[in-house]
Amino acid sequence: MIFFVANDGTVMESVPSPVYQGSANANDIYLVAPFASNLQATVAFKLPNGVLTEQYALKLFGELEGVINKQTGKPYLGWQFSMPNEITRYYGVVTAQFFFYAADSTVVISTSSVTFTVGRGVPEILPNTPTADIYETILSNLSSIQQQLDNGTFTAKSIYAWNSAYTYGAGELVFYPQKGEYGVFLKSLTDNNKAEPYVNGELDSANWLLVSDFNILTELYSLKGDILDAVQESRENAQAAGQSASAAASSSQQAAQSATAAENAAQRIESQAQYLEGVKDGTIAVPKATSDGNGENIAEHFETIESYIPSSTSAENQLADKAFVNSTVNNMSAFYITYTQGSATEMGQAFPTQASLLNATTFYSGTQVRVPTQNDYATVLADETQPKGVDGSYPTTRYTYQTDTQNGTYPNGQWDFQYVVNNTSLTQAQVDAINSGITAQKISDLDNATAAKYTKPSTGIPESDLSSGVQTKLNKMGGVTGVKGANETTYRTGNVNLTAEDIGAPEAKNTIYGANPKDLDLNMEFDDEFLLAHGYMGSIHVNGNPDWYNLINVRHRNGEGDGNLYGLQIRKALTATGSPLQYRAQTGGDWEAWETVYSPSNPPYETGNNLGTNWIRFKSGVQICWGYFNNGSNTRDKVFQVSFGKAFSAPPCLVLTSGKTDGDSSYRSTYSNYYQITNTWANVGWYGENASSLCWIAIGTYA
Fold first, then answer.
1. DSSP-derived 3-state class of residue 696
2. CA–CA dist 295, 287 (Å, integer)
3. Contact in structure between 190 and 117 (CB atoms under 8 Å)
């Protein structure tokens, strides 16, 4: 079946297909609508027995290529749903309605209802003792039949005026008041009849049959007096003609019979008119129909159904108490709720965290969307509200949905923690122990054998319990006769336990972890409780970080007292080449930022040479340039210019460290990249042995 939905939710067109009672997943519903693909589409049904189903999720199968909605400009998308057996279980008219939900589970739009007919199959044969499911079906059908009788679904609809919202079956009667002044009784000729009986004053004879026209009956009733007068006159004429010939007698008799028939007709007209007035003003109630439309009496159906229901509970049959059945089913039923929707062969995924469970608004059980009810349960893979395990990860837990009422549903309840799931794998040693074949009898035999063995006295093995050979060896001259520590004065015999204090060694009050080669690498953060309470030298693997670090962790008092509030950490990456050496301090519990002591990729200064000078730059912004100058000539009174290897941000401070001057020698540095000098010899060959190259140094800042 294909249903086409407009932008406002109206079902514009439907393409029906045959549906037969008992079909399962053989009848597909295709929904075509101009709505966004991120909306969740569902469908709910009203079955022929009046039962309303839950909402089923439809599967999106994509856009219809080239089909665009003229009003919105959006493409039409298609959704698909395969009807299960429970939708086609009962024959008759099924009503469906579609809903579209946003991500926050609010209804964006709901469509108008549509109907289709499930063809009748072979009816089920009730068992001698009904099961719980059959009992529920019986009660549901009884309730539906009673509701239909109360609402006038059967022939008793005639007590109401015709209503365009109702659907009438073949053979049903209805009072149509819009015809004339007094209305008419009509009979439906077709199933699923919603046709207007009269169009432009003409009866729709294809769907309706006129049964009684109360306008004509009322008009005849108004002629009652004239009819009775005619009857009386006929009787008088008949009496007068009684003395006539035999032919006249025969005519008189016929006239009398006609008069009697007319009188009876007038009385029936009067009775029907009075009945109509009573129906219209509500003083007379029309009896409800006893026929089920197939020639069978409805009362007999009730008697048949009631014969299967015991009047009281017993050990063999407790189904008479519906509350007991509902209570038992609800207490024993629980569905596994998942975070995602599962496929046809597996369940969906569990909730990753406790927050994802509490914040979820859409839940699944298998392939279907499900609203959690009492006792439904869910699994949280990493519960952040529980303590971490020894491996540093959060445990897997189980939650159950609980409400204040027995049949309560989401969101009128809450998810309660039940227990932590032990998902730790068995070690090989544990597996070997399970497969070892050890039994209680073997343990008992081993205990008995152990009890028969020699028991060493608490004071040690006496010499008399030893063999003669062992006694001889112990009694040899020169053997050990006693033991004492360096700080002791008396030798001890027997079982002697020497402490570090006994032998003069200082007692280790606190342990520096990592100093022993057997200490394990730690998997933690830099400010974990362990590092706040202990000194540590070794490597650690930072949680959530692929790098390993070499760490020196110094604690005030080695962690004792307020030692967790003051400390120093020095770290360097274990495997990253060229990583910086860093440190940070803790004062009063607060950690300072990591500071870099040295980084090969970013040294504290840089050096070089250029233009015949050397230079060094510090990270503080200070720059030093230095060099010498020799013009290689015997001239004087010449202006010399010396360029810096790196430019300064402003004219630097300049000092000449050597050279020979004569007269008013001067220099100046008014530029950031060079300086000039005059009246200075700057060569080795001029002015005798006292002449030398000019040496200089400049100090300033760089940008």
1. strand
2. 17
3. no
Neighbours of 92 (CB within 10 A): 14
Q: Which of 380, 345, 383, 351 is nearest to 364 (CA)?
A: 351
Helix (H), strand (E) at residue 539: strand 536-542
Q: Is the pLDDT of residue 457 over 80?
A: yes
Contact 700, 653 (CB under 8 A): yes
Which residues, 6+ apart, have CB-to-CB distance to 666 below 8 Å? 677, 678, 679
What token pair was written down for 301?
């159906």
- The crossing angle, in degrees rounded to 10, of helices 246-281 and 214-222 is 120
* Structure confidence at residue 529 as a pLDDT band (50, 70, 90): confident
Tell me the two tokens of residue 481: 């006769």
Task: Decide if pLDDT at 174 tops 60.
Answer: yes
- Spatial distance between the Cα atoms of 237 and 245, rounded to a whole number of angstroms: 14
Q: At what angle do helices 132-150 and 298-307 cross, to 10 degrees?
A: 150
Decide the pairing of beta strands 19-20 and 114-119. parallel
Q: Are 301 and 149 in contact (CB under 8 A)?
A: no
What's the CA dihedral at 124, 127, 129, 132 to 10 degrees?
A: -40
Our measurement of the distance from residue 456's CA atom to the centroid of its chain's CA atoms, rounded to an integer in Å, reads: 65
Give CA–CA dist 652/556, Å, rounded. 47
Return the percentage of the chain with pLDDT > 70, whole number: 69
Q: For residue 194, give the nearest of 126, 115, 136, 124 by alpha carbon.
A: 115
AA letter at 490: T
Find the mean pLDDT for residues 394-421.
89
Region label for 534, one of left (φ > 0), alpha (ψ between -120 and 50) or beta (otherwise): beta
Region of poorest pLDDT, from 74-78, 185-189, 313-317, 342-346: 313-317
Q: What is the distance between the alpha carbons of residues 703 and 695, in angstroms, rounded to a whole number? A: 25
| CA pair distance 15, 430, nearest whole angstrom | 65
Task: Specify which of 212-226, 229-243, 628-642, 655-669 reaches the highest per-range mean pLDDT.
Answer: 212-226
Interacting residues of 421 by C-beta distance below 8 A, sequence separation 6+: 379, 395, 396, 397, 398
Q: Are 100 and 40 in contact (CB under 8 A)?
A: yes
pLDDT at 474 over 60: yes
Buried-exposed string 27-40: b where 16+ CB fall within 10 A, e elsewhere:
bebbbbbbbeeebb
Which of 597, 596, 594, 512 is CA-nearest to residue 553? Answer: 512
CA neighbor of 5 nearest in space, from 96, 80, 98: 98
CA distance 685 to 628: 16
The residues pairing with 581 across neighbouring beta strands, listed in sequence order, are 598
Residue among 156, 440, 463 at smallest CA distance from 279 = 156
Quote the CA–CA distance of 164 and 110 in Å, as a whole number: 22
Q: Distance between CA 490 and CA 544 in Å, rounded?
A: 58
- Residues in a beta bridge with 107: 101
User: How far apart are the two ends of the chain, measured CA to CA in Å?
Assistant: 79
Specify the residue for token string 């004071």: 459
Residue with tokens 């219209």: 280
